[in-house]
Amino acid sequence: MKSSPLNSAEKFDTSRANEYARQSRIALAGYDACQDLAACMLAASLGGAGSAKILVVGAGGTAQEIIAMAALEPTWRFTAVDPCAPMLEAATQQLQANDVLDRTHLHLGYVEDLAADASYDAATLIGVLHHLDGDAAKRQTLRSIRAHLKPGAPLIVAGNHYAYASQPLLLAAWGQRWRQHGASPDEVKAKLGKILQGADPPHSEAAVQQLLFDSGFADATRFFSSLFCGAWLTRKTS
């Protein structure tokens, strides 16, 4: 049975939200570099757009993409969307600590819940797609984002791709990454079992591109890679 977006959100309870900042930086080597580069790619794409409005989907947890963009572009404003209350609360704390909360509108829910006339100059979808079960759910989210973007607006998409079991060397290296950060052999085994059962990433970079095409976006430019994870910039087609 395919999970709904709500089922996906329920994976991020208070316990997982509290540990997300540390765990995400282990699971994704280069986590902060990816967020920093995403900010640079959007700034380069918008070309000094001034007071741009940025839609940040799946902002819960660290809110690091907003923090990185806000440091680079002091006039940008953000709408942070996340369906998980504990994750959005964790993000709120980070935004407040980094003096960005007054530039951010927080939305507990889904992109589909935003006002129909809400329009944005750019958007980010980082660490979300592989938590949505099935291509239909992935396309739904991408199309919902597209509906709120101005013509030609850039979108950053970042997340895991590949069927995990199809890449045994990467999977083994991912386990070593946890060991590198102090995980015991049993903990590494549990982490590997969890990743094999707990997500549904697109099975290739071509599959990511096809999802974007199907959802009304153009060719994507890849700007980051780390084991299973990739990050791309694409644009809304007219």
From TrEMBL:
State the protein's name: Class I SAM-dependent methyltransferase
What would be an example GO MF term here? methyltransferase activity
Q: Which InterPro entries match?
A: Methyltransf_12, SAM-dependent_MTases_sf
Give residue ranges for domain Methyltransferase type. 60-154
The record, for Pfam families, names: Methyltransf_12
GO annotation, biological process: methylation
Q: Which UniProt keywords apply?
A: Methyltransferase, Transferase
Q: Which organism is it from?
A: Pseudomonas kielensis
